Amino acid sequence: MSINQYQNSLNQVDKDIASLEKKLANYAKSEAEKTRRISSIEKSITKNTSVSTLNSKLKQISTLRNELSRIVTQKADINKKIAEKRSKRNDLSIKVQKEQEKQTKKEFEARKRIEETYKKQIADLTQVVNSGLSLVKNSSNLSVYENDTNEEYDVFISHASEDKESFVNEFADVLKNLGLNIWYDDNNIKWGDSIRTSIDIGLKKCKFGIVILSRHYLSKHWTNYELEGLFQRESTDGKLILPIWHNITKKEIQDFSPVLAGKMAINTAIMTPEEIGQQLLELVNSTKVN
After folding, report:
1. How far apart (Å, rounded) are the C-alpha atoms in residues 240 and 257?
2. Which of 50, 103, 109, 220 is the most buried (most CB within 10 A)?
3. What is the pTM of this model?
4. Same structural domain for residues 80 and 7?
């Protein structure tokens, strides 16, 4: 049986015990009333009581005592049933407790697996980033650290290509129309360019990194590469990552990265691209003032 089934059985036993205890209280009340009546009749008998009246009163007393005897038997039967129910309740309570302990253990093991998976993802991504930066340093092509452009970007847009039509393309157009200088793969990666080198330049030169978290985003190599690069920069430069949730739940993000789930985010289900763009513009402008 599942924990819910055990709990339902336990609740039913509690109801049965409550019902039996109510019956027992009613019988006790009836027992007290009949005992009182017997005492009252007995006190009414005197030496002056006529024979016919005496016989009548004795008959009433006999009837009441017979009823009392049945009540005592019924009370004993109910007490037996209550004892059986309480014994059953104790057994069910133990089973519920054991099932709860099993469930708690399973949840703990599941959380531990998620944490281990997350740590492995970070370690793998860190290795990918480090190997990528090493390749870029030693390459005769455009170098992130030596020969790259001096252009700086207000924001780097990290996203999954599957989300372009539903949100990202429109959002990028809004940011450009607001006068923001954005790094966006459609604009910044040209035919024949090194994808890794182009991304590294954008990651290095951006003031903020918008991370559009979706189910597609969490499962792709390049998005995880970009996310790790942003985390690396944020660890030294301070606030950098700006999460946007797109068609995804908090639990899905929590399972992927508790760190990301803990960051204040904007949700595309609540705000339009224009509203999000205005908030970003205010944030960028505030950094310029400072």
Report:
1. 17
2. 220
3. 0.48
4. yes
